[in-house]
């Protein structure tokens, strides 16, 4: 690693560092911040009450699916905020990245309030919805998987100057940005948007569209940050660490598949757990490719109507030390 690279490393914990925005060192972070600001929206702009007639004539299985999704999305948006506040923001020193993270944290809060808006509007048992993330084993297992990684960064001492500390930083990013936001959330988004495919809950679908637009930027930021840290820290570029990251993604797929059987125990019109799980495997392959791995499942996308929500970034190698191809054209990211 050259001395120039060391001086411009994105990792750092000094309070006096990262106080001057210009010159911008990481243009991709500045571009994503600008796009995130342009994307600003508020849930009450959508007339969700217009969907009540649709909700009233839905089957119990369909209502269960909507409730189950709210049970998962609501607390996990707040969990992402904890991961950002305690596991990402304190360990980087680029002000443009801090600006983006501040906007992302606001967006996670806005998403939480969006799901509260759904709970307030639809006749959903809030207590049941709130309790499920603890009482349903498949949902609780996903949450514990995520908590495991953030706990290592909040309840234990993390020295970001050591190889193991940097590995923990990357693990946390993979757990939250790649797995939670890039696979698990997208799986739920597909189920939520499937109702609109049948001309149901159209305003709810618009709300999810806006959330997906935010999440696409969150995913890009996370991937860019992972690749930047890997590029700037050659000690992380080992086959063993690559295998560990890859296995994290595969383990997450197995957990999501179990969850989807609880989400859709008997299936609903046009959708069942096997269909959703094929989509999960398709997503996992896209995320693996975005990190430079070979696809693992090699399945087709069963929900091609969701393709606009999962366009991949320009592919790079997980351990490519001189990569510059991951800068994002933020103005083109809205449809991703």
TrEMBL record:
Its cofactor is Fe cation. It is an enzyme of class 1 (oxidoreductase). Coiled coil: none annotated. The keyword Ligase does not apply. Fe cation 2 binds at residues 108, 181, 215, 218. Its EC number is 1.17.4.1. GO terms for biological process: deoxyribonucleotide biosynthetic process. It comes from the Bacteria. GO terms for molecular function: metal ion binding; ribonucleoside-diphosphate reductase activity, thioredoxin disulfide as acceptor. Signal peptide: none annotated. Binds 2 iron ions per subunit. InterPro entries: Ferritin-like_SF, RNR-like, RNR_small, RNR_small_fam. Fe cation 1 binds at residues 77, 108, 111. The chain crosses the membrane at residues 173-195. CDD domains: RNRR2. It catalyses: a 2'-deoxyribonucleoside 5'-diphosphate + [thioredoxin]-disulfide + H2O = a ribonucleoside 5'-diphosphate + [thioredoxin]-dithiol. Belongs to the ribonucleoside diphosphate reductase small chain family. Tetramer of two alpha and two beta subunits. NCBIfam families: PRK09614.1-5. Provides the precursors necessary for DNA synthesis. Catalyzes the biosynthesis of deoxyribonucleotides from the corresponding ribonucleotides. This is Ribonucleoside-diphosphate reductase subunit beta. The lineage of its organism: Bacteria, Bacillati, Actinomycetota, Actinomycetes, Micrococcales.
């Amino acid at each position: 690693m050259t001395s120039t690279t060391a001086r411009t490393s994105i990792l750092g914990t000094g309070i006096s560092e990262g106080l001057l925005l210009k010159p911008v060192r990481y243009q991709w972070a500045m571009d994503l911040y600008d796009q995130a600001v342009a994307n600003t929206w508020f849930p009450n702009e959508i007339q969700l009450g217009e969907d009540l007639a649709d909700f009233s004539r839905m089957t119990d299985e369909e209502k269960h699916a909507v409730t189950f999704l709210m049970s998962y999305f609501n607390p996990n948006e707040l969990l992402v905020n904890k991961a950002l506040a305690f596991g990402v923001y304190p360990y980087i020193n680029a002000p443009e990245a801090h600006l983006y993270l501040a906007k992302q944290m606001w967006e996670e809060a806005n998403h939480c309030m969006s799901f509260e808006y759904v709970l307030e509007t639809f006749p959903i048992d809030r207590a049941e919805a709130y309790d499920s993330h603890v009482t349903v084993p498949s949902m609780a297992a996903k949450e514990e998987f995520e908590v495991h990684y953030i706990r290592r960064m909040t309840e234990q001492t993390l020295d970001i100057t050591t190889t193991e500390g940097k590995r923990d930083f990357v693990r946390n990013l993979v757990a939250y940005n790649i797995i939670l936001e890039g696979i698990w959330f997208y799986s739920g988004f597909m189920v939520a948007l499937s109702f609109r495919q049948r001309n149901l809950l159209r305003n709810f679908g618009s709300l999810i569209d806006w959330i997906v637009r935010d999440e696409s930027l969150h995913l890009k930021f996370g991937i860019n940050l992972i690749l930047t840290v890997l590029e700037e820290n050659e000690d992380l570029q080992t086959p063993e660490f690559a295998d560990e990251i890859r296995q994290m993604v595969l383990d997450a797929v197995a957990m999501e598949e179990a969850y989807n059987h609880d989400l859709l125990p008997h299936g609903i019109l046009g959708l069942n757990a096997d269909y959703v799980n094929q989509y999960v495997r398709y997503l996992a392959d896209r995320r693996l490719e975005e990190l430079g791995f070979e696809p693992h499942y090699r399945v087709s996308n069963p929900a091609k109507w969701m393709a606009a929500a999962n366009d991949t970034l320009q592919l790079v190698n997980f351990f490519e030390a001189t990569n510059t191809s991951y800068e994002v054209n933020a103005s083109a990211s809205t449809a991703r």
